[in-house]
Amino acid sequence: MMKNLLTLSLxxxxxxxxxxxxxxxxxxxxxxxxxxxxxxLLGSMLAPTGMFLSFAEDKGNRYITFVxxxxxxxxxxxxxxxxxxxxxxxxxxxxxxLKFKADTITSKIGNVSNSSIMTIISPISDxxxxxxxxxxxxLLRIGIKDDVGVDLESTLFTKKNRKQxxxxxxxxxxx
Length: 175
What we know:
There is one protein chain. The protein is of the alpha+beta class. A hairpin with a 2-residue loop joins β3 (48-58) and β4. The chain has a single domain, classed as Immunoglobulin-like (Sandwich), CATH 2.60.40. Mean pLDDT is 79; it is low at 1-19. It contains three helices and ten strands; from the N terminus they run αββββββββαββα. The strands form two sheets. A six-stranded antiparallel sheet has the order 1-2-3-4-8-7, covered by helices on one side. Strands 6-5-9-10 form a four-stranded antiparallel sheet, with no helix packed on it.
């Protein structure tokens, strides 16, 4: 009984740590360039998703990235998807819709073991980052084809995640 309680406590503590936000601002030891990124793991301890949203700055270019890892079995969860059709759509609290079309060179769909991984990477402007740092996302949609796709429910994209995205976007904008 005590062993089970200790294991449960450890899992809860690890869960709180793993569903959080990471901000990185450091100099690359090989290139001397400053690498800046922010990552928000989506979901909660009770509803882990295998998804994250991140912002990054590299050599003056800024990017938004969405990664989704899903159990897929043998055939792959995203096998019928085409990278050139992927997009990330954000309906904001002001009813404005931001759309980020997947870059066909850096965005990928793949399978590893019994998981499928979808990565959507898109350039993001300073104006879009500024908007994301001031307004909460009310709904996040993964556009699979012609902006039709999967909407992330509130259990997958929590109020805490929404606040973390505001902070992550602000972080990338700071000099």
